[in-house]
Structures are given as structure tokens and as C-alpha cells.
From TrEMBL:
It comes from the Eukaryota. It comes from Pseudomicrostroma glucosiphilum. This is DUF1264-domain-containing protein. Belongs to the OBAP family. InterPro entries: OBAP-like (IPR010686).
């Protein structure tokens, strides 16, 4: 084992994806998200999420992305924390803006992308990674929400994606016009091109996007409870009744 620290985990980042996240409990809010992703294995990505692609960007969350096969192994209750990527990809909302070989260092991202300036990747170039992402599922947590706070305050927030029934920013022409002006991404053109290679009949696996079928949102709630101490004893809450309170 090396005696000094390395940047190996960071150097495995080989994708930058741009998309929009929606809080599980509030379908009105939309959060711009820059994903910097690495493959831990062929069936799983793990992504660091920032609020921009600029120096000084805020780290606002994480996302785990798994294959359809792995998602189908999850218990139904666990699936309710995950969202599909079918609509995000098909609608043109999710875009690859930098891609390299998984073996390449982050500094060698192979694209024509210049942060904050250049357009998203050419359609033919992003076809490969997006074909893969189309049938994947994500579990996303934002630790900095809302973004108008100067610090990441409060509990983390479970985030979701868009669906055909609830397209979110896909119906916000102003938001997409701003992205086109800033990043050169033509969302409608990407949607049309992706129709040439994505399967429109793909069925999202049961349990994903649970809020849409149940009418209820999963969310993260912080509670209080006694904690274990040395020797196996439990702490005694200040109220003295030994019961945790939320």
C-alpha cells in the first residue's frame, strides 16, 4: 500500500453530465445540476454534483446510478427512493458535456467542452453514454438546498427526475432558452435526434418514480433517539423518559 495519499478516486471521474433535479416533496422547484461521474463497475456510477461548472462551484449533492438489472434486485421499499432516467434522456434534458475513457484522468476529459462557454457534446458522441443511461436508475441526495442559503443548512433532501407526466423544466421555455444561450445546448434538437436510437417502448421498472403512482413523496426526516455508549449502555435523553423524540 502506498504510504502517501493519492487522488485516485477523483482521477476516475470521466463524465460530466448536465441535468435538472426536482425535490421529491416539491415538484415546482427545479435545481440545475452538474454531475461529475465515475464508474465503480460496469453497472454503477457515482457522481459528485455541483451547482455550476465554474471555479468555486458549490458541492451540493451526490447521485448513485445503477443498471436496470441491479435496480430489479432491490426490495420494493428501497426502490421508492430511486428515479428513472428514461424521460430525462429522451426529452433532451440530460446532456453529456464531457466524456473520456473510464481509465483516463479527470484532467484528460476528451471533448470540445470549455467550462461555461462551449456547447454540449455532439449528438453522435454522446449517443453511447446516453444509450446506457436511458435504462438506469438514480438515487440522489442534495445536502445544500435551497441554494439561496450561504451555507448548507438543514437536513439533506431527496431529489428526483422528470417524467413524461411531469416534465418539469421541459415545459419551461425560458429555462431551456437560458441553457441554450449559456451552453449552446438545443434541447428540442437533442430530443429529436435521440428518437433515432432510443426505444420509446421501454418500460420503467416498477417501484421507480414512486411519487407518481402513489401520490406521496418519500423524504428525509431528521429525528432524535438515545445513542449507544461504551459498554453497550444507552444514553438517557434530557427528558429522562428514555424515549427518542422527533
Amino acid at each position: 500500500m502506498s504510504s502517501h495519499t493519492t487522488f485516485a478516486p477523483i482521477n476516475q471521474i470521466h463524465q460530466c453530465l448536465h441535468a435538472y433535479h426536482v425535490p421529491s416533496h416539491d415538484r415546482i422547484q427545479v435545481v440545475e445540476a452538474f454531475h461529475y461521474c465515475a464508474h465503480t463497475n460496469p453497472e454503477m456510477h457515482q457522481c459528485i454534483i455541483y451547482d455550476s461548472d465554474q471555479p468555486g462551484a458549490r458541492l451540493i449533492g451526490i447521485e448513485y446510478v445503477i443498471s436496470e438489472r441491479l435496480f430489479e434486485t432491490l426490495p420494493m421499499e428501497e426502490r421508492h427512493f430511486w428515479h428513472s432516467h428514461k424521460h430525462e434522456v429522451a426529452s433532451g434534458l440530460l446532456c453529456a458535456i464531457a466524456v473520456a475513457s473510464p481509465a483516463g484522468a479527470a484532467a484528460k476529459l476528451a471533448s470540445n467542452y470549455v467550462p461555461g462557454v462551449a456547447a454540449g457534446m455532439p449528438d453522435e458522441v454522446e449517443k453511447g453514454p446516453l444509450s446506457e443511461l436511458y435504462k438506469t436508475y438514480g438515487k440522489t441526495i442534495h445536502t445544500w438546498h435551497p441554494l439561496d442559503q450561504k451555507l448548507p443548512l438543514g437536513p439533506p433532501v431527496l431529489m428526483t427526475s422528470t417524467t413524461a407526466a411531469h416534465p418539469g423544466p421541459r415545459g419551461d421555455k425560458d429555462l431551456l432558452a437560458q441553457r441554450k444561450e449559456k451552453m449552446g445546448i438545443d434541447t428540442e434538437a437533442k430530443e429529436e435526434f435521440r428518437k433515432t436510437y432510443l426505444d420509446p417502448d421501454y418500460k420503467v421498472v416498477e417501484g421507480a418514480d414512486h411519487w407518481e403512482t402513489s401520490g406521496e413523496a418519500k423524504f428525509i426526516e431528521i429525528g432524535r433517539r438515545p445513542y449507544k455508549m461504551e459498554g453497550g449502555e444507552m444514553s438517557k435523553p434530557a427528558d429522562g423518559n428514555g424515549a427518542g423524540a422527533t
